[in-house]
Amino acid sequence: MTTYYSKDHEWIAVEGDIATVGITTYAQEQLGDVVYVELPDAGKTVSQGDEAAVVESVKAASEVYAPIDGEVTEANTVLADEPAKVNEDPEGAAWFIKMKVGNPDQLSELMDEAAYKAYVDTL
Amino acid sequence: MASPEAVEDLKTTPLYDLHGELGAKMVPFAGYSMPVQYKPGIMKEHLHTREKAGLFDVSHMGQAVLVGPDHETTARALEALTPSNFVELGQGRQRYTVLLNEEGGIIDDLMVTRPVSSEEDGRLMLVVNAARKHIDYTHLRAKLPENITLHVIEDRALIAVQGPEAVAAVAAHAPAAADLAFMSAAPMEFDGIACHIARAGYTGEDGVEMSVPGGAAEAIARALLADDRVEAIGLGARDSLRLEAGLCLYGHDIDETTSPTEGAITFCVQKRRREEGGFPGAARIQEELTDGPGRLRVGLRLEGKAPAREGAEICLPGGQPVGTVTSGGFAPTVGAPIAMGYVAASHADPGTKLSLMVRGRELPAVVADMPFVPHRYYRKPKS
C-alpha cells in the first residue's frame, strides 16, 4: 500500500486499483470540530478537482475535492452518525471514500509523506 | 465572519499578546485581529461557557458617551434616533436599542447605560458593534443637537465574562458585581482597578461586560483566567452561543433593510414610544406593530444533521421560496443544527414545516420558538 498526499490536505492510500481517501490531521485541525460529513453515493464517477464531499465544522462548510479521477466504490457510512471521528482519527477510521483509480498517472503528481510534511511546514 | 482587510492593516486589542500566548487562532474581524478560537476549539469553548464561565475579548466594540446638560435632554436626543424609552431609564440601568434610518431600518444595535451617579447626570454610555462604530459615530454627530456631544472612548478595553459561574468569578475580585441586577451597571474596583461593570451579555447566560482601562486589561484577564472556572472563549463560540440564545448579529440577522418589527426585537420599542412615535421610520414601525410585518425573523430547527448556513433559501416543502437564512450552524448545547432567518409572515408560526435549500437539496426544518436554549439571566431575589 502506498499513501499519497494532496495540496488540499487529503491522503490517498492506494492498494491495487482501489484508493482510500480521507483528510489529513492538519486539515482536521484547521477545520475544528466536525459536525457533519456529506459523502457521495457509491457508483458516482468523479474527476480530479470535482467536489467529492463536504465537511461541516461548527463554523463553516468546506468542500473536499477528488484528488484523482475515479469511480466511488464505497462511502464511510460511520461518519454519518459519528462525524467527530474525523477529528479523532482522520488518517484511519475516519476515511471518507474508497474509489477505483481512474488514471494512475495522476498519482505521480501527488506528494509522499515527507514532501507533504515539508509542504505543511511552509504553511 | 472574516473580513477582507489585509492582515498588516488590522488593529489589535490590549489583549492581543495574551491571545497569542493562549494559542488562539486569530482572524480578521471588523478591522481587528481577533481570536476565533483557542486550543480547546469552538465546541468545548461553547459548552464550557454554558457549564461554568467564559472570558471574551470584545474590546473591538465601540465604547462612547453622550454628554448633555441633564438626563432628560440627553435622553430625548437619543430618543429622536431610536424607538426606546431613555427618559425613564433609571440610574445605573442598561437598555438594548437600535439606531434607525428614515425608513425604519436598523443602522446598528447597541447597549445604552445611564450612569448610576447623579454627578454624571446628562450622560449616556453606549456600546456599539465594531463593524458599525464609524457609521454610528458619523450618524450620531450629524443628528444630535448642538448641546449633546459624542465622546468616543479609545483607551478602554471591553471584557465579557459569561456563564453560570461568571459573576462569582468576577466578584472574587470585584465584590460589588454580585449585587448588580440584570441589565444594570455600576463603576467598581476590580483588584483596585477602576472598572465599569454591567450585568448583561450576548450568550443567554448570567454574566457581565466590563469596561476596563486598556493598560489594565491584560492583568484583569489573567486574574480571571487564573480561576479554574474561567476559560478564554473565541468569537466562534460567541457566535454559536448567541445563535442558541436567539440573539441577532448585526449585518446578518438585522441590517439597514430590516425594521425592529421584522427583526422580532420589538421589546426595544417601549410603550410610550409605540404610542407617541417620534423616531425615524415611526410610521412604518407603528403600522407593522399594529398589522404585523410582511416578513419576520424566526428560529428554525433542522430535522437532520446537516447545518444550513447564512444565505440558504427557505422554501415551502416542494420548493416555493418564502425567505432566507440569516444565521445558521451546529448548536453545541442543542446538539443539532439550528438557524434563524426571515420568512413571509404567513409562514412564521412555530411548528410550520419548511425546507432549507443546501447544495441543491431540501433539508427539512420547522419554525421554532427562540431562544433555542433557555435564557438564564440573573433575577434578583425580592428582599
UniProtKB/TrEMBL annotation, chain A:
<dbReference type="GO" id="GO:0019464">
    <property type="term" value="P:glycine decarboxylation via glycine cleavage system"/>
</dbReference>
<dbReference type="GO" id="GO:0005960">
    <property type="term" value="C:glycine cleavage complex"/>
</dbReference>
<feature type="modified residue" description="N6-lipoyllysine">
    <location>
        <position position="59"/>
    </location>
</feature>
<dbReference type="InterPro" id="IPR011053">
    <property type="entry name" value="Single_hybrid_motif"/>
</dbReference>
<dbReference type="Pfam" id="PF01597">
    <property type="entry name" value="GCV_H"/>
</dbReference>
<comment type="similarity">
    <text>Belongs to the GcvH family.</text>
</comment>
<keyword id="KW-0450">Lipoyl</keyword>
<protein>
    <recommendedName>
        <fullName>Glycine cleavage system H protein</fullName>
    </recommendedName>
</protein>
<dbReference type="InterPro" id="IPR003016">
    <property type="entry name" value="2-oxoA_DH_lipoyl-BS"/>
</dbReference>
<dbReference type="InterPro" id="IPR000089">
    <property type="entry name" value="Biotin_lipoyl"/>
</dbReference>
<feature type="domain" description="Lipoyl-binding">
    <location>
        <begin position="18"/>
        <end position="100"/>
    </location>
</feature>
<dbReference type="GO" id="GO:0009249">
    <property type="term" value="P:protein lipoylation"/>
</dbReference>
<dbReference type="InterPro" id="IPR033753">
    <property type="entry name" value="GCV_H/Fam206"/>
</dbReference>
<dbReference type="InterPro" id="IPR017453">
    <property type="entry name" value="GCV_H_sub"/>
</dbReference>
<dbReference type="GO" id="GO:0005829">
    <property type="term" value="C:cytosol"/>
</dbReference>
<comment type="subunit">
    <text>The glycine cleavage system is composed of four proteins: P, T, L and H.</text>
</comment>
<dbReference type="InterPro" id="IPR002930">
    <property type="entry name" value="GCV_H"/>
</dbReference>
<comment type="function">
    <text>The glycine cleavage system catalyzes the degradation of glycine. The H protein shuttles the methylamine group of glycine from the P protein to the T protein.</text>
</comment>
TrEMBL record, chain B:
<protein>
    <recommendedName>
        <fullName>aminomethyltransferase</fullName>
        <ecNumber>2.1.2.10</ecNumber>
    </recommendedName>
</protein>
<dbReference type="InterPro" id="IPR028896">
    <property type="entry name" value="GcvT/YgfZ/DmdA"/>
</dbReference>
<dbReference type="InterPro" id="IPR006223">
    <property type="entry name" value="GcvT"/>
</dbReference>
<keyword id="KW-0489">Methyltransferase</keyword>
<dbReference type="InterPro" id="IPR013977">
    <property type="entry name" value="GcvT_C"/>
</dbReference>
<feature type="domain" description="Aminomethyltransferase C-terminal">
    <location>
        <begin position="296"/>
        <end position="373"/>
    </location>
</feature>
<dbReference type="GO" id="GO:0032259">
    <property type="term" value="P:methylation"/>
</dbReference>
<keyword id="KW-0032">Aminotransferase</keyword>
<dbReference type="InterPro" id="IPR027266">
    <property type="entry name" value="TrmE/GcvT-like"/>
</dbReference>
<keyword id="KW-0808">Transferase</keyword>
<dbReference type="Pfam" id="PF01571">
    <property type="entry name" value="GCV_T"/>
</dbReference>
<dbReference type="GO" id="GO:0006546">
    <property type="term" value="P:glycine catabolic process"/>
</dbReference>
<dbReference type="GO" id="GO:0005960">
    <property type="term" value="C:glycine cleavage complex"/>
</dbReference>
<dbReference type="GO" id="GO:0004047">
    <property type="term" value="F:aminomethyltransferase activity"/>
</dbReference>
<dbReference type="GO" id="GO:0008483">
    <property type="term" value="F:transaminase activity"/>
</dbReference>
<comment type="similarity">
    <text>Belongs to the GcvT family.</text>
</comment>
<dbReference type="Pfam" id="PF08669">
    <property type="entry name" value="GCV_T_C"/>
</dbReference>
<feature type="domain" description="GCVT N-terminal">
    <location>
        <begin position="15"/>
        <end position="272"/>
    </location>
</feature>
<dbReference type="InterPro" id="IPR029043">
    <property type="entry name" value="GcvT/YgfZ_C"/>
</dbReference>
<feature type="binding site">
    <location>
        <position position="209"/>
    </location>
    <ligand>
        <name>substrate</name>
    </ligand>
</feature>
<dbReference type="GO" id="GO:0008168">
    <property type="term" value="F:methyltransferase activity"/>
</dbReference>
<dbReference type="InterPro" id="IPR006222">
    <property type="entry name" value="GCVT_N"/>
</dbReference>
